[in-house]
Amino acid sequence: MSFFRLLNFGITRGSSISKTHQSNCECSPNLIKIRPSSSHDTIRVPIEVVFSDKCNKALAFTLEERQRLCIHGLMPACVRTYDEQMLAIESNFHSFESNVGRYRYLRALRQGYERLYFQFVSKNVHAVLPIIYTPTVGLACTVYGMLYRGMTGIHITKHDRGHMKQILSNWPMRRSVKAICVTDGQRILGLGDLGANGMGIAVGKMELYTALAGIPPSMLLPICLDVGTNNKSLHEDPLYIGLRDERLKGDEYVCFVDEFMEAVVSTFGDQTLIHFEDFATPNAFMFLNRYQHCYCHFNDDIQGTAAVGLGGLLGIQRITKKPLEEHVIVFAGAGSAAMGIAYLLKMELMSRGLSEADAAKNIYFYDQDGVLTTARKSIPDILCVFAKNMKETKSLETLVEQVKPSIIMGATSAPGLFTEKIIRTMAASHERPGIFAFSNPTIKSECTAEQAYKFSDGKAIYSAGSPFPPVEFNGKRLTPGQANNCFAFPALVLATMTVLATRMPDEIFLLAAHELAEFPTNEEMQSGRIYPLVKQANEVAYKIGVKVAKYLIENGYAKRNLEPEDVEEYIEKNSYKLTYGSSLAETWAYPKMKPHPSTAGHENKHQKKK
Ligand SMILES: NC(=O)C1=CN([C@@H]2O[C@H](COP(=O)(O)OP(=O)(O)OC[C@H]3O[C@@H](n4cnc5c(N)ncnc54)[C@H](OP(=O)(O)O)[C@@H]3O)[C@@H](O)[C@H]2O)C=CC1
Ligand SMILES: CC(=O)C(=O)O
Ligand SMILES: [Mg+2]
Predict the structure, then answer these.
(1) Ligand closest in space to the Cα of 186
(2) N or C: which terminus of the chain carries fewer CB neighbours within 10 A?
(3) Residue limits of the Malic enzyme NAD-binding domain (predicted)?
(4) What is the pTM of this model?
């Protein structure tokens, strides 16, 4: 018998509890007296469905529901309200001494009570993001095998070639999947190659889709491509969950990922959004170039970070009242994050009328080989324009003394790279030097908030990839910004999924950057915080998501037949409901996802051929 036939047994969809039935119970908040209900009122739902992560309301099952679902007596008498449930979770959450302990608790909560979990995350973004996202998720990935407690997504290994479609079809909610976040685990935050343990990152990113952007979890599928790991310590770790082989490489690796992309669209449809996360930089760029014009694909480390990086730079422009083209900017690190930001920054400057060479003139790159000069052999294409005809130096301090940057952007995973001398040199030449320490998790930051404020005499406009608490300096409370792509990707995926965009063009990342820069008030900007607060992340996702969705419609990228003025209403109507259904039928109807209406042949009037 199908799942739905079981669910519908004995109940008319949409019906509510009858008056007669209600009169069978006498309830006070904590004291319940029941007379047995008549048999036709009960619903024979398998107990594993009632108590499944999707349906379980824990102690919030009402007395009527307990009776009708034949689960009465399987839990204590207390019927908890929403606030009481939140209190219970909050008390548990705070009772753990370590953040990994909290992470572990939240995993169990998600796996037992999905809706309750997302209620808690959405209402406590400020406290929970540092656990399910950076920095704690990074630490959790290092011990992921130990923390593993069952299915969170799909693992496809290098032995699955030729069978990927079949594996993707094994996902229980395959009919509702609309977006995928995939990693091959090779560059997990700044922690390096964590192989199959990287699944924790894909899960964390997708949880933010739901918690911040309201996308139903049933539409989301985290995937780990287990192509081996070159991390020897994982090969020897008895709790490691992945293949203990060297990584696939070369053509074999590319063909593997090609087959994966084809399997995704043939299983879930060609509108599926495919988010790449934490691939090693050369592969990240290679796949972005390969797929961005034929799939609905983006790379968050390159493009999401670029939107947030440029948003921060536009914030510095607001504070200093000096146009970005007049700032001297040093990028420390030449990986996905730094190159992505520099590319978008160049695009922004060229949109202001500068030539490519002029846009790149004041932008310097520095990596493990020192400053990027024209003398360097084999420069990645994207960086050529930034290479300078200057004397080579291996020292970042020397470079900073030489070019006196007003802004430094670190994405190196090299903690302490921004020394006291560097920060003091910048503060001596600039009233409000911009210091970005993008690297994650916290232990990888190029400098801490305290160092940035102390060594700059409180002048620094400091932001970091991971959260830092406010710092008291000379009687002032200075609040760092969080320069993290979590202020961009939820909005971008919300927009893309809302309008069923065919592609994710560069312009939407530029637009997101501009919108993000407008968030902080003038007062907040002047105090040195150029990003919104983490607790505003839902509002950021919604507002930027709406703007980007309208842009996609107006520029012919949308497949859904939706007018720009209807975007807000559509989002509100279709977003994940954090509260339980108001009737039994609504509660139990949850797993039945309505397929997106086919829009084939219904191009909206804004649509151009792309
Ligand atoms: N805040 C956010 O939203 C995001 C943060 N990140 C973080 O940024 C960091 C980098 O990631 P990604 O861009 O993918 O970069 P990669 O790890 O691919 O590259 C790191 C770059 O830093 C350089 N580097 C390493 N050590 C030093 C050093 N001591 N001095 C100078 N340069 C150094 C490397 O140089 P070489 O090539 O010569 O080895 C390389 O160019 C990670 O910590 C990641 O977590 C990433 C994406 C988003
Ligand atoms: C935030 C993020 O995507 C990273 O550090 O890789
Ligand atoms: Mg990342």
Answers:
(1) 1
(2) N
(3) 302-553
(4) 0.91
Per-residue model confidence as pLDDT tens digits over 251-260: 999 999 999 9
The verdict on whether residue 230 carries a ligand-binding annotation is no
Out of 3.30.70.260, 3.40.47.10, 3.10.300.10, 1.20.1370.30, select the CATH number for domain 48-130. Answer: 1.20.1370.30
Establish whether residue 337 lines the binding site of ligand 1, counting it when its CB lies within 6 angstroms of any ligand atom.
yes
- Closest ligand 1 atom to residue 444 Cα is 43
CATH of 145-299, one of 2.40.420.20, 3.40.50.10380, 3.20.20.70, 3.90.230.10: 3.40.50.10380
Q: Look at the domain 301-583 and name its fold.
A: Rossmann fold (3.40.50)
Torsion, CA 375, CA 379, CA 382, CA 385, rounded to 10? 10
pLDDT tens, position by position, 488-502: 999 999 999 999 999
ipTM confidence: 0.99
Give start-end residues of each CATH 3.40.50.720 domain in the chain: 301-583
- Residue among 203, 192, 193, 189 at smallest CA distance from 149: 203
Give CA separation, 541 vs 199, 208, 512, 536, in Å: 23, 10, 10, 9
Q: Is 484 in the pocket of ligand 1 (CB under 6 A)?
A: yes
Residue 447 DSSP SS3: coil
Is the backbone of residue 195 left (phi > 0), alpha (psi -120 to 50) or beta? Answer: left
User: Looking at 42-190, which runs of residues are DSSP E strands?
Assistant: 154-157, 179-183
- In Å, the largest CA–CA distance within the chain is 88
> Within the chain, which residues score under 70 in pLDDT?
1-41, 43, 582-610
Residues of the chain with CATH 3.40.50.10380: 145-299
Q: Which residues line ligand 2 (CB under 6 A)?
A: 134, 189, 278, 300-301, 440, 465, 484-485
Q: For 304, which DSSP code?
A: I
Question: Looking at ligand 1, which residue's alpha carbon is closest to its atom 38?
Answer: 368
Q: Looking at ligand 2, which atom is closest to the CA of residue 133? A: 1
Token pair 């029941």 is found at: 34
Closest ligand relative to 192 C-alpha: 1
Which two tokens mark 228?
Answer: 């081996």
CATH 1.20.1370.30 in the chain is located at 48-130
Strand, coil or helix: 510 = helix
Distance CA 362, CA 265 (A): 42
Tokens at 348, concatenated: 């922004």
Q: Ligand 3 mean position to 135 CA, how many Å?
A: 12
